[in-house]
Amino acid sequence: MPTYAPHRLQEEKLAQLPLILREEEIDCWLVWVRETVQSPDPVLPLVLGADLVWPSALLFTPSGERVAIVGSFDADVVPSELYGRVIPYTEGIADHLRTELNRMNPKSIGINESRSDVGADGLTAGMKCLLEGMLAETPHAARLVSAEGAVGRLRGRKSPLEQARIREAVRITEQILDELDGFLCVGQTETAIQSFVHKRMAELGVGFAWQSASNPAVDAGPDKPFGHGRPSENRTKQGHLLHLDFGVQVDGYSADIQRMWFFGSEHEVPDEIAHAFVTVRDAIALAADFLRPGVRGCDVDAVARAHVVDQGYPPFAHALGHQIGRFAHDGGTLLGPPWERYGDAPNGVVEPGNVFTLELLVPTEHYGQVSLEEDVLVTKSGCTFLSHPQTALRCIVA
């Protein structure tokens, strides 16, 4: 990866912010945090890129104003090139916060709380109570609104540097998956396969897109339930499938890809497996063809779900796709069905710059699950694959 200016990521994200606040009709966005090493807000790396200790208020307006009210010991970590005003305090923040809000006189103050989007839910209950107490005798207390929409758009509209980092994470993830073709054989344990992947990650100097115990998830044969569990001593066998769910993290940005192998030649693939694989592959392709700015997440999911059912399989029990970025599950609009567990996320609208996974599984009666996952970037008119879609089973011949 090329070398960039220290705060280029934050500069790119903060440049997006005024338009987003106008779109969401938020007059002032308040990022309200403390002890962020222990209790991080997911947006802080995007707008500051450092940790704060004392109670701190980062204020942003649609006009582009940026104000940081922080403890005096934290003032040096706030880059002057990012914030026009840095207000340090010693005894307490309340008077400074009220003064700034009185000066701005916003009709709405966005705070980071959300019932549907974990990426927009960085405000803790204790910090909200503290804020409400400080503003209790002011008109600002009645002006607090959820900044869920603004945060979702800020996280979702990947900037050029974010896109470059995700592309690199995808490239290295695929590189390691490709290397497995020369490593895999009959008789290996799932844990041995995971150990190979972890060794290559260490050699390449990349991190984990999610917890290492289940990254990669390794599922050999028909007797292993899919999910977020860790590999076992289950072994690969001739005539059986192998599934991996894997993603690395590069410079704070993630990939998330699933691949399938068959132990045997392409002529030995049972019809049951072949039909399941083609169904999954084609459902992803159909969803990618439909995915474009302006469509709702639930409508993209419905395209793939209908194809799976038309092919004789039950509907898959998860969303078709989630956004990826700083985390493998990055919040914002979800390509999922309108189920209670997803809240309002499937009703979100797809935007240019969003990066999604497209993933689903279908069952077979005798060989376990067949599942694939690709990473795509939404463009102005559709989407483009960041990963190289798997179009055929990878066959491991003894």
CATH level-two architecture of the largest domain: Alpha-Beta Complex
Query: In one word, what is the shape?
Result: elongated
Main sheet: strand order: 4-3-2-1-5-6
By DSSP, the count of extended strands is 16
Poorly predicted ranges (pLDDT <50, ≥5 residues)?
Answer: none
Number of helices: 9
Question: For the report, how would you describe the main beta sheet?
Answer: 6 strands, mixed
**Rg computed from alpha carbons, rounded to a whole number of angstroms:** 23 Å
Which secondary-structure class do the elements indicate? Answer: alpha/beta
Give the helices and strands as they follow along the chain. Answer: HEHEEEHEHEHHHEEEEEEHHEEEE
> How many angstroms separate the termini?
38 Å
Average pLDDT reading: 96
Can you lay out the helices and strands and say which pair or pack?
Blueprint: H1 8-24, E1 28-33, H2 44-47, E2 56-60, E3 66-71, E4 85-89, H3 94-104, E5 109-111, H4 125-134, E6 144-146, H5 148-156, H6 160-179, H7 190-204, E7 207-208, E8 217-220, E9 241-246, E10 248-250, E11 253-254, E12 257-263, H8 271-290, H9 297-310, E13 355-364, E14 368-378, E15 383-385, E16 394-396
Parallel strand pairs: 1-5, 3-4, 5-6, 12-16
Antiparallel strand pairs: 1-2, 2-3, 7-10, 8-9, 9-12, 10-11, 13-14, 14-15
Write a structural description.
α1 (8-24) crosses α5 (148-156) and α8 packs antiparallel against α9. The strands form four sheets. A six-stranded mixed sheet has the order 4-3-2-1-5-6. Strands 8-9-12-16 form a four-stranded mixed sheet, covered by helices on one side. The protein is built from nine helices and 16 strands. The chain folds into two domains: 8-155, 3-Layer(aba) Sandwich (Creatine Amidinohydrolase, Chain A, domain 1); 157-396, Creatine Amidinohydrolase, CATH 3.90.230. With 398 residues, the protein is α/β, with parallel strands linked by helices. A hairpin with a 3-residue loop joins β13 and β14 (368-378).
